[in-house]
Q: What sequence folds into this?
């Protein structure tokens, strides 16, 4: 994500320098239209913010059960089982842009789309998953996600400088996970969640369309942790160790309008 931020900063600096050299304005009446449409292609990374029970016995739902001995001991109520994100995995977002003009500097934007991503959880104990065909512990537990994104954002634009125009966006978004979640999944996440989104962007007015480059952060507003596995074969403590799980999404978007 740091690399993406550096790319955006360099892009904005170069675009600003380029804008000062331009003399021919493109799409001079584009922003006067009451309604216009476009499409979006974006790169995303999905993240979790995790809070744990320390030790796991602080969770009243924790029940000790013998799962077989590994690494010298069982997981008891005095142990701390901790999860973390192994690495950021790039994903893909595609969507539609609908923009309503509210005034010279403001637009209301609805950007429905689909996001495909993955989160990889690692634990401080070996990860055994009954869904895996291997008897060896997993390197990480993968949570693959397909979101329906429904953001409704206010866009505040600065004054136009030749063919360039920086802007800010903010507003709520609803995300619904339509990927299949099995009852025996190691960690189960709720399907729907509300987010607050905020970002910065740069409009570039080209001869035939406007290209907007945008970096946006989406912060989950609720606990996304679902109940643990329903089956009797899956180890429960990978979920009962977690007290709260909130979802965050970072997106680098390219809007074509």
A:
């Amino acid at each position: 994500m740091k690399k993406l931020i550096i790319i955006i900063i360099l892009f904005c600096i170069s675009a600003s320098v380029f804008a000062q050299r331009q003399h021919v304005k493109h799409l001079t009446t584009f922003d006067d239209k009451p309604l216009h449409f476009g499409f979006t292609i974006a790169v995303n990374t999905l993240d979790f913010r995790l809070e744990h029970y320390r030790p796991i016995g602080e969770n009243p739902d924790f029940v000790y059960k013998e799962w077989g001995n590994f690494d010298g001991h069982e997981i008891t109520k005095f142990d701390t089982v901790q999860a973390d994100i192994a690495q950021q995995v790039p994903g893909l977002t595609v969507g539609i842009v609908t923009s309503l003009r509210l005034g010279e500097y403001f637009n209301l934007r609805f950007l429905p789309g689909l996001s495909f991503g993955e989160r990889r959880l690692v634990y401080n104990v070996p990860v055994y998953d009954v869904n895996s065909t291997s008897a060896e512990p997993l390197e990480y537990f993968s949570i693959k996600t397909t979101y329906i994104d429904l953001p409704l954002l206010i866009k505040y634009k600065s004054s136009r400088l030749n063919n360039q125009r920086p802007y800010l966006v903010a507003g709520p978004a609803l995300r619904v996970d339509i990927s299949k979640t099995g009852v025996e999944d190691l960690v189960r996440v709720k399907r729907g969640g509300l987010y607050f989104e905020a970002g910065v962007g740069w409009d570039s007015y080209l001869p035939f369309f406007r290209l907007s480059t945008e970096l946006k952060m989406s912060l989950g507003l609720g606990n996304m942790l679902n109940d643990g596995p329903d089956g009797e074969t899956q180890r429960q403590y990978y979920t009962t160790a977690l007290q709260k799980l909130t979802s965050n999404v970072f997106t680098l978007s390219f809007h074509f309008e």
About this structure: The two ends are 26 Å apart (CA to CA). The helical segments are 2-21, 237-240. Strands lie at 35-52, 83-88, 90-101, 106-110, 113-123, 141-157, 164-177, 192-205, 210-220, 242-256. The chain is about 10% helix and 50% strand.
